[in-house]
Design brief:
Blueprint lengths: L1 H36 L8 H31 L2 H11 L10 H10 L4 H14 L6 H13 L5 H13 L6 H13 L3 H13 L6 H13 L3 H9 L3 H5 L3 H13 L3 H10 L6 H13 L3 H13 L6 H10 L4 H12 L9 H14 L2 H11 L9 H13 L3 H12 L8 H13 L3 H9 L5 H13 L3 H13 L6 H13 L3 H14 L4 H13 L3 H13 L6 H13 L3 H13 L6 H9 L7 H12 L7 H14 L2 H13 L8 H13 L3 H13 L6 H8 L3
Helix pairs in contact: 2-3, 3-4, 5-7, 6-7, 7-8, 8-9, 8-10, 10-11, 10-13, 13-14, 13-15, 15-16, 15-17, 17-19, 19-20, 19-21, 20-21, 21-22, 21-23, 22-23, 23-24, 23-25, 25-26, 25-27, 26-27, 27-28, 27-29, 29-30, 29-31, 30-31, 31-32, 31-33, 33-34, 33-35, 35-36, 35-37, 37-38, 37-39
């Protein structure tokens, strides 16, 4: 009973002890708080709290002040101060009011390298999350993408910084990065960006496709470019920029796929303009691709692309070897409904080509058509070009008439070059009065004296040539190799070999002798049948340190062929090759003449190999010689091989009637009727008029 009564009392005491302990611990904690915090919140010092708020506001005010100062310095163009203030701003723990684009611009103005600028931006973003804000970086990227002066070395790494901080990058920014890589010809980086798009499962935009087309074309990857073009929306493909169309046509022309690409562009309804045609044509003409130029002419005709004066001029130059085509272009320009007039530049181009083609008739028509546009007095350049045509065509009377009828009445004085041509023409037709008149206009002109020496030599007037030569010597003119060589040539032309040898010895003594001098004497020995003496001259040249040129070797080679010295012929060829003189078209033409039905097969094969090894392209004259040689040796299989190679360089597009005649004759002997008709159809479609040679070959084709 006693135990039961004491139990509740002990329990109360124990409970009271526990409560007392808890109260004591709370009291101790409260005292500690008061001691360490400066008092209870209820009794906090209002002045101290206000001071703390004021300090925070002061800090914010200082940051705002710094940012405002930075913006002010930027507006003033004080980029050094901007960069200094930036070092403080980038430590602020808040979204900056200052644009990173301004900071970048200032650093660029201070001449800091792209890597250093990128380093500053990367440090700011990594050290302060506020700069990794989506809007902050997006604004910077947009600014850089629009800045033409900012290169990909700046924009690219900042795009990577944005990606690393999970900031979405606009597709337009990627388009700009890819385009800037293309501009720098960083084609590997362009490929990497495309792979990135694929990994992100993003579709390539039309603008990116356009850049990829340009990238492929720069690397001459035509199939790749066409693949990108095919994947573009048709509406955008039809609006493909003009430079890309031009480049596409140029690359396809080099790959001999112009027709295929043109058909593709036509399906996409791409517009073909004159400017595009001119750009492609100019590039083809610059690299000497006449085949491409001819294809472009056909393209312009089939698509009715308007031609400018510049277009016509380039077509004229590219078709220079095709006289019928040059005539057709002239007719197009001078037609009543033509939008292009015959300018002085076009006229000079025509006359220059007429001079080479020896087309005096067309030259006269060009001169008559352009004359009204020249005003009262004809242009000196036009007159000079016409005189050159007539001189090259050996129409010396007409050349003199141009001067007397068009230049002299209008007091148009010939320059030294034109005066030389006119003197030559006057001497050729016995107009010594005109020649002397021109000569007297510049008595101290060495070039005039040289021209007179040459003219006298061609007229077999050696006495006159020597007289002019002596006048130069007596006038105190410094004599040289050129003057002596002219007199030497006059002596040889007039058949006075004793005088030629006398002056030749004088030249040796005066050390005026050169390769031209030796070639002149060598040619005279060969014409007299003194092949051995000519061969010794070759050795003498070598001893004097004068390397023989192609003219020297070709003269000797021709003599060997004429004397049927087969061993000597090939020994000379080997000698040429040993000293680094490559046989040219003249050398090969001479060797082709030596080939007959009885020639050794080794001679035939060696000759054909030399033709393949020529540095210069095969011209029509050499091609005609190949045809005739193949007919003589009875090996038309060789002709097919050479014809294929000649076609690859565009030669078949400009064949003349005699060459067609030779080809018809060759295939006639082979009884290849189909090929004969192809040649005849091709010749007539190109409006090449058959000559007596062509008709003769046609009549004997069976």
């Amino acid at each position: 009973m006693t135990m039961l009564s004491e139990s509740p009392i002990s329990m109360v005491v124990e409970l009271f002890s526990l409560v007392w302990m808890e109260a004591l611990m709370f009291t101790i904690a409260a005292v500690g708080y008061v001691l360490f915090s400066g008092g209870l919140p209820l009794f906090a010092n209002p002045g101290k709290t206000a001071k703390k708020i004021t300090d925070d506001s002061k800090d914010n005010s200082e940051e705002d002040k710094t940012e405002k100062e930075l913006l002010s310095k930027f507006a003033e163009g004080d980029h050094q101060a901007v960069f200094k203030l930036w070092q403080r701003v980038k430590t602020f723990e808040k979204v900056p009011a200052v644009s990173l684009a301004h900071i970048v611009e200032s650093m660029k103005s201070l001449g800091k390298a792209g890597a250093e600028i990128v380093g500053e931006i990367r440090t700011a973003v990594e050290c302060n999350d506020a700069f990794a804000d989506r809007e902050v970086l997006a604004t910077l990227l947009e600014s850089l993408s629009k800045d033409k002066d900012s290169g990909v070395e700046l924009l690219g790494p900042i795009v990577e910084i944005a990606e690393a901080h999970q900031v979405p990058v606009d597709v337009a920014i990627y388009e700009t990065v890819i385009f800037k890589h293309f501009q720098k010809q960083n084609f590997k980086e362009v490929a990497k960006m495309v792979k990135k798009f694929e990994s992100l499962q993003l579709s390539l935009t039309p603008r990116i496709r356009m850049t990829l087309i340009s990238t492929s074309l720069r690397q001459s990857k035509l199939d790749e470019a066409l693949e990108h073009l095919a994947q573009m929306p048709k509406a955008r493909a039809a609006a493909i920029p003009l430079p890309i169309v031009s480049r596409l046509l140029s690359v396809s022309g080099k790959a001999h796929r112009l027709t295929e690409v043109v058909d593709t562009l036509k399906e996409l309804k791409v517009k073909f303009e004159t400017k595009m045609l001119d750009e492609v044509l100019a590039e083809a003409l610059k690299r000497g691709d006449t085949v491409m130029c001819r294809h472009l002419y056909q393209l312009a005709s089939s698509l009715s692309i308007p031609k400018s004066a510049q277009t016509f001029e380039m077509f004229i130059k590219s078709h220079a070897s095709d006289a019928s085509m040059v005539r057709a272009l002239f007719d197009q320009i001078t037609a009543k409904d033509s939008d292009v007039s015959l300018t002085e530049s076009l006229a000079q181009t025509f006359l220059a080509i007429c001079s080479v083609n020896k087309d005096a008739k067309l030259a006269g028509e060009v001169f008559e058509k352009v004359l009204p546009s020249l005003g009262e007095a004809p242009d000196h350049a036009i007159c000079s070009a016409l005189v050159k045509v007539y001189v090259n065509c050996e129409l010396y009377e007409k050349a003199c008439a141009v001067f007397e009828e068009n230049m002299k009445p209008n007091q148009v004085k010939p320059d030294p070059t034109l005066s030389d041509m006119l003197m030559k023409a006057a001497m050729q037709v016995g107009r010594s009065d005109l020649a002397e008149d021109l000569f007297e206009q510049s008595p101290g002109d060495v070039a005039k004296h040289v021209t007179m020496i040459k003219a006298c030599g061609k007229e077999n007037n050696l006495q006159g040539a020597v007289s002019v030569f002596n006048k130069l010597k007596q006038g105190g003119v410094h004599m040289n190799s050129m003057i002596y060589n002219c007199l030497l040539d006059a002596c040889v032309h007039c058949g006075d070999m004793d005088s030629a040898f006398k002056y030749f010895e004088q030249m040796k003594e005066l050390d005026f002798v050169d390769v031209v001098s030796y070639n002149t004497i060598l040619k005279s020995h060969l014409s007299s049948g003194h092949v051995d003496t000519a061969q010794k001259l070759l050795e003498e040249m070598s001893a004097r340190g004068l390397p023989a040129n192609k003219i020297t070797y070709n003269e000797l080679l021709n003599a060997k062929v004429q004397t049927k010295d087969r061993r000597g012929m090939w020994k000379l060829v080997e000698q040429m090759q040993a000293v680094g003189v490559t046989p040219n078209s003249v050398s090969c033409s001479i060797l082709l003449k030596s080939l007959t039905m009885n020639s050794h097969n080794s001679d035939v094969s060696r000759t054909m190999q030399l033709i393949d090894q020529m540095e210069e392209p095969m011209d029509e004259v050499l091609f005609s010689s190949v045809i005739e040689a193949c007919i003589r040796v009875g090996q038309l299989n060789l002709l097919s091989d050479k014809m294929r190679k000649y076609a690859q360089q565009g030669g078949l597009l400009a064949l003349t009637a005699p060459t067609y005649g030779s080809m018809i004759k060759a295939y006639g002997q082979a009884r290849d009727v189909e090929r004969i008709w192809e040649l005849w159809t091709e010749m007539t479609s190109r409006q090449v008029k058959p000559t007596a040679i062509t008709w003769g070959a046609w009549s004997t084709r069976w």
